[in-house]
Here is the input.
Amino acid sequence: MAKKTILDLDIGIDDTMALMEALENPELDVIGVTTTFGNVSQATSQKNALDLTDMFGHPEVKVYPGAKHSLTDDEVYETEEDLWEIHGKNGLGEVVLPESAREAETTEAVDFLAQAIDEYGDDLTIIATGPLTNLALLEQKYPGKLKQAGNVTIMGGAVGVQGNMSPCSEANIVTDPEAAKIVLEESGAPINMVGLDVTMRVMLDRDRVNEWRKLGEIGDKLADVVNFYIDFEEKETPGLGGCSLHDPLAVAVAANPDLVTMVPLDIVVDTEGEMRGRTIGNVKTLRSSENPVNVAMMVDADRFEKQLNRDIQNIIKAAEAK
Ligand code: RIB
Ligand code: CA
Here is the structure.
């Protein structure tokens, strides 16, 4: 039976592909999207969640408002130019989608998460592809709740490789390290951590993206969205020819953990000084059998890339046919 799944997203371009993979993957039954800040403001993430779920023919997927800023801030988070270059100001590479007539739910993300854990317990999978603020807020409001979920898969962190925001920090973690600490160090939840160690090993190339244009108007728009992201990645790494697939890999791992090889580690999150945002295994507990975070270190890139391309094409075809 498909796993009841909540997606916690800061919708951005790779989050968009993560949403597509989740809606199309037969192992996952998406029961809601909770929204957070990160690639965009929470308000923009929420708008994108509504517009995209409608466009993909899934208006039954409800959208819940989540964190507007990190645990240590008190002002509503808005993005600046450095992020507009990666995901566009609207999170979708400035591509304008048809606007959903729906509104987000009035139930807050933390309360929806708590209710879903109460209802589904072990059968619930939570996939978080932005800063971990909503999950930390859940732990603060409902202590001990997160570990009652069946699985929490996050895109975040870098254990054996350099970071993408500083030499040691990855974007989702460094955007709210205090939240990551609560979730990864303190919650005791069953976590799969899909970080840069594996997400930089998987790629989507421009030729494949441009194939989507043949599928129709929606395919054409999505190709524009993803090409915006590829343009940025190519500027950073000339000759790359595509983009890495952070968030969609996390979704695919939640559905099929055998796509990756995982190492159990007791992850420590640094919150101070130059190391702020670093995720690293605690050497003192390496011999323990209770290391709670399964860190993905290798991936079957070929299998994942073929699966993602097939699923994205299928969801576009289904959307075009509606
Ligand atoms: O480091 C990669 C992560 O940061 C992804 O979740 C991507 O969406 C970006 O925000
Ligand atoms: Ca993301």
